[in-house]
Amino acid sequence: MSVLSVRGLTKTFGGIKAVSDVSFDLEKAEFLALIGPNGAGKTTCFNMLNGYLRPDAGSVKLDGTELVGIRPRKVWRMGVGRTFQITETFASMTVRENVQMALISHHRQTLDITHRARALHVAEADALLARVGMAADADRATSELAYGDLKRLELAVALAHRPKVLLMDEPTAGMAPSERIALMALTGDIIKAEGVSVLFTEHDMDVVFTHAHRILVLNRGRLIAEGTGAEIRANAEVQAVYLGGGSVFHGEAGGAHG
Amino acid sequence: MADDLLAVSGLNTYYGGAHILSDVAFAIGGNEVVALLGRNGAGKSTTIKSVMGLVRPRSGSVVYQGEEIAGDEPYRVCRRGIGYVPEERRVFSELTVEENLEVGRRPPRADASEWTPERLYALFPNLAERRRHPAGRMSGGEQQMLTIARTLMGNPRLVLLDEPSEGIAPLIVEQMAMVIKELKREGLAVLISEQNLHFARIVSDRAVIIEKGAVRFTGTFADLDANPDIAQATLAL
Amino acid sequence: MGFYFAQLLTGLANASSLFLIACGLSIIFGVTRIVNFAHGSLYMLGAYIAYTLVTTIHAGPFGFWASVLLSAAAVALVGAVIEILILRRIYRAPELFQLVATFGVLLIIQDATLAIWGAEDLLGPRAPGLDRAVRIFGEPIPEYDLALIVIGPVVLGLITLVFRKTRWGVLVRAATQDREMVGALGVNQRWLFTSAFMLGAFLAGLGGALQVPRESVSLLMDLSVIGEAFVVVVIGGMGSVGGAFVAAIIISVLNAFGVLVFPQISLILPFLVMAIVLVVRPYGLFGSPASAHGAPPVPEAPMRPLNQAGIVAMTLVVVAFAALPVVDDGFILVLAVDLFVAVLFAASLHLIMGVGGMVSFGHAAYFGLGAYAAALAVKTLGLPMLPAMLFGPLAAALGAAVFGWFCVRLSGVYLAMLTLAAAQILWGVTFQWQSVTGGDDGILGVWPASWASREVYFYLALAVTVVGLALIRRIANSPFGYTLRGGRDSPTRAEAIGIDLKAHQWLGFIIAGALAGVAGVLFAFAKGSVFPETLAIGHSIDALIMVLLGGVQSLLGPLFGATAFVLIEDWVTRLDYWRFIFGAIILLICIAAPDGIAGGLSRLWRLVRPGTPRSGRPA
């Protein structure tokens, strides 16, 4: 069953079509990859899916409900979580407090001035951190975290609202190969355990071909291909505009998969 | 070694109270491509920034062409012939491609042919088509090319490339590999920081592996292959 | 017809001089990211130097124009000295520290000018060769105004040419976007910054020198022009020279016609226009989102709860204050109440600025609203003290609700400028609306109730202040306070976890306004009178200085800052040339302790107690 249904999504910036007539479905518990050259429109697409940008045309439906025209924070309340290409975290808070903030918002307590924020939802926050392997870092300052850890923190924050759909913009950028595999395996587990549907963008083809159930390819704002890893690898157009000869990713990670 | 272009030794760098680099030491020959490998947070970027003077090391020595440059300001380091290509691209988005190149322009070196905009446009044909476009309107891959071209306008002898393959499309990564090989043919020395061992192997002569701010391995890729445990332990393969 | 055309030409002539000042300010902000409060002082210096040169050199038109250019060059040199001696040391400091430092420079230049040229207004001669009027449509137009109308666009053209066609211009534009990267490409930023600052100072000096034939030279020129120059820069978009030109024309021409309809409008019109423009275009006419922010802040360490020792220390401080009446029942009590007022005022500003990340240049508006509301409740409604006191925070909250609604839609420097505009509008209304507010004469005879002796009022003030501070602390540690802090750290993330950030910021703005109103009430009854100065720019800057002296990143900061400020002010204002001394003290603190007194103390603490965890950032 399709959880997120995207039809005819179009966006123009200054006369240039950044995204043009993009349609696809995200099934329940599906791990769907969106790949394509830098500037192909992937991030623009993401921003239209959860309300940061209003499309010029097209529709985005979550379980049949139209999302176009709804503010990001409402889209989040309806069950669409998001991690960012360049991480967005609360730098002056500890790791745990970042997750607590998401939980405070989830429980609609942001106007409360009677409690101490750092005493709320501690166990729930720690459980989420444990889930992404960051239990030991709970009391660290977020500003001290390495980039890869920030990505994992964002995942924990995104899970706090128990989303139906999770949008992950380049989730493994800045991570070492084994961390990439671990993060995506973790995401895969979450998909299985909770039935979340995940759409992600990624430049690491090893990650994409290992983990994605299905792959969409975007070039100059248009979907040019859609299919399994094997189909995409064999697609001549995708090779020409994006994958190249494959010399820089085949066998990366020392054959740790495959 | 006396014929090293750059020799780093005993480098210690702190951010606030955190000890980021401890006694980092390595060297680069005059026409050598060296890859600084390690996982994120290991200290690769900090090493490059410490050499460039963007971060002030607390102790240690950076000798370039026989002269101590540790603690010099970035513009002095650059004027000595060290070019820096940052990880986040950092093109001047409101300036045109031409103007971006102009910012990087430095006088030519006596012993090498000068990089001119025309030569760079030949090397990066995409830039030629867009020379009067604001850099911010270009795609990520094109911006990556522009940062390298901009740095080459300074006629460096040594280029520091921070994570050149990170976050860009495979096709552009292939071009990046070609460019690095071209720089070596031109007689330059290159230091790249990388997490992608496969890419590093394609473009570089030697590897320096850094973990938790300290150097764990220095040698050729053949040496590294002979010691799979090292790569396993330090690069999280 | 002719009359209106003449009005238009007057407006355009004013626009030219306004443009010269504003464009220098914009260039300086673009390159150094410093909001230069001392820019009006450079303008004033240009006028004074030109006055001296023009009245000593009598050499006809050539002598006049040479004097004007020489004055601008001299001001450029003064600018170089300021940049090299002071600004260069604080480029990495938080942007507000830079603002306060330039305010210190403003104070120093004010007293230096007073010492050199005296307190009398000076009237310069007309420009030789341009001292007559020509008739256009039957109306007399000063020839000099026509010359000014030409000079503005010529300067705009020259600057545009320099920025587009010279290497220096390209480097300046590049540095406006990414200073560090320009340095890593081999450019010595120091000289780039110094030269950009000199160009800005030159233009300010030129603007000042060109005013000599038009108006008398006085010590009020600096503050009277800086507000309008800020407005022009903001309307045009921070860092945009062309924007400054368009904005200068809009403001000056509207002003020229506005005064025909409503003579008092010139006090508030520029700020009104700015408020309207910013609501429609949050980054000015030609600004970009990136232009809203100065140097990226260094992330602060997570908050820690006050430990046992801290609670004991704070209790001891309160007990020590409570025991004050035993020691002295006169001057010290008065000073202590001043201190309570300042602490509460500074802490309320810190709530929106430190916790909420919304910098207010006009926080005195809510202090003043509180003071006036309470005073009017006593004088007009005839209420006793305690019920009248309640009017203060109510009125302040209402004012903050109205202005805050607009302000929270902006960010960074633009938000700060709109708060300034709001305060300036309120000040203008208070100043003009004589029948209600008494105008410049203020409201007198607002004394505490007869049961409230000096000692009782002291205890009342102490109690109100302690409760106010406790409330602020509680809020900062609550989910609401964390939400504000989260919004400051990353608005994108706040929105992405379902938070309606603007609504929370608005509420924070109202709470902080109400608390400032409480401080204003305490002030009104302590002094027995209220004057428009309580809402003026100077008073808002006082609060900023207090917060910055204390350190923005600490909840205890406002306490230290306000204490230091009140004590220093009490001592210094008794001296001759106190502005000079006060300015020097501000500069000293800015350069020696850029993280404020609280930050400096905690650094000292770490030095004497190694092993305390420190924060830092890895690669």
Automatic annotation (TrEMBL), chain A:
<dbReference type="InterPro" id="IPR027417">
    <property type="entry name" value="P-loop_NTPase"/>
</dbReference>
<dbReference type="GO" id="GO:0042941">
    <property type="term" value="P:D-alanine transmembrane transport"/>
</dbReference>
<dbReference type="GO" id="GO:1903806">
    <property type="term" value="P:L-isoleucine import across plasma membrane"/>
</dbReference>
<dbReference type="GO" id="GO:0005304">
    <property type="term" value="F:L-valine transmembrane transporter activity"/>
</dbReference>
<protein>
    <submittedName>
        <fullName>ABC transporter ATP-binding protein</fullName>
    </submittedName>
</protein>
<dbReference type="InterPro" id="IPR032823">
    <property type="entry name" value="BCA_ABC_TP_C"/>
</dbReference>
<feature type="domain" description="ABC transporter">
    <location>
        <begin position="4"/>
        <end position="245"/>
    </location>
</feature>
<dbReference type="Pfam" id="PF00005">
    <property type="entry name" value="ABC_tran"/>
</dbReference>
<dbReference type="GO" id="GO:0015192">
    <property type="term" value="F:L-phenylalanine transmembrane transporter activity"/>
</dbReference>
<dbReference type="GO" id="GO:0005524">
    <property type="term" value="F:ATP binding"/>
</dbReference>
<dbReference type="InterPro" id="IPR003593">
    <property type="entry name" value="AAA+_ATPase"/>
</dbReference>
<keyword id="KW-0067">ATP-binding</keyword>
<dbReference type="GO" id="GO:0015808">
    <property type="term" value="P:L-alanine transport"/>
</dbReference>
<dbReference type="GO" id="GO:0005886">
    <property type="term" value="C:plasma membrane"/>
</dbReference>
<dbReference type="InterPro" id="IPR003439">
    <property type="entry name" value="ABC_transporter-like_ATP-bd"/>
</dbReference>
TrEMBL record, chain B:
<feature type="domain" description="ABC transporter">
    <location>
        <begin position="6"/>
        <end position="237"/>
    </location>
</feature>
<dbReference type="InterPro" id="IPR017871">
    <property type="entry name" value="ABC_transporter-like_CS"/>
</dbReference>
<dbReference type="InterPro" id="IPR027417">
    <property type="entry name" value="P-loop_NTPase"/>
</dbReference>
<protein>
    <submittedName>
        <fullName>ABC transporter ATP-binding protein</fullName>
    </submittedName>
</protein>
<dbReference type="GO" id="GO:0016887">
    <property type="term" value="F:ATP hydrolysis activity"/>
</dbReference>
<comment type="similarity">
    <text>Belongs to the ABC transporter superfamily.</text>
</comment>
<dbReference type="InterPro" id="IPR003439">
    <property type="entry name" value="ABC_transporter-like_ATP-bd"/>
</dbReference>
<keyword id="KW-0029">Amino-acid transport</keyword>
<dbReference type="InterPro" id="IPR003593">
    <property type="entry name" value="AAA+_ATPase"/>
</dbReference>
<keyword id="KW-0813">Transport</keyword>
<dbReference type="GO" id="GO:0015658">
    <property type="term" value="F:branched-chain amino acid transmembrane transporter activity"/>
</dbReference>
<dbReference type="InterPro" id="IPR052156">
    <property type="entry name" value="BCAA_Transport_ATP-bd_LivF"/>
</dbReference>
<dbReference type="GO" id="GO:0015807">
    <property type="term" value="P:L-amino acid transport"/>
</dbReference>
<dbReference type="GO" id="GO:0005524">
    <property type="term" value="F:ATP binding"/>
</dbReference>
<keyword id="KW-0067">ATP-binding</keyword>
From TrEMBL, chain C:
<feature type="transmembrane region" description="Helical">
    <location>
        <begin position="456"/>
        <end position="476"/>
    </location>
</feature>
<feature type="transmembrane region" description="Helical">
    <location>
        <begin position="306"/>
        <end position="324"/>
    </location>
</feature>
<feature type="transmembrane region" description="Helical">
    <location>
        <begin position="99"/>
        <end position="119"/>
    </location>
</feature>
<dbReference type="InterPro" id="IPR043428">
    <property type="entry name" value="LivM-like"/>
</dbReference>
<keyword id="KW-0029">Amino-acid transport</keyword>
<feature type="transmembrane region" description="Helical">
    <location>
        <begin position="65"/>
        <end position="87"/>
    </location>
</feature>
<feature type="transmembrane region" description="Helical">
    <location>
        <begin position="191"/>
        <end position="210"/>
    </location>
</feature>
<feature type="transmembrane region" description="Helical">
    <location>
        <begin position="388"/>
        <end position="408"/>
    </location>
</feature>
<keyword id="KW-0472">Membrane</keyword>
<feature type="transmembrane region" description="Helical">
    <location>
        <begin position="545"/>
        <end position="568"/>
    </location>
</feature>
<feature type="transmembrane region" description="Helical">
    <location>
        <begin position="580"/>
        <end position="601"/>
    </location>
</feature>
<keyword id="KW-0812">Transmembrane</keyword>
<feature type="transmembrane region" description="Helical">
    <location>
        <begin position="415"/>
        <end position="436"/>
    </location>
</feature>
<keyword id="KW-0813">Transport</keyword>
<dbReference type="Pfam" id="PF02653">
    <property type="entry name" value="BPD_transp_2"/>
</dbReference>
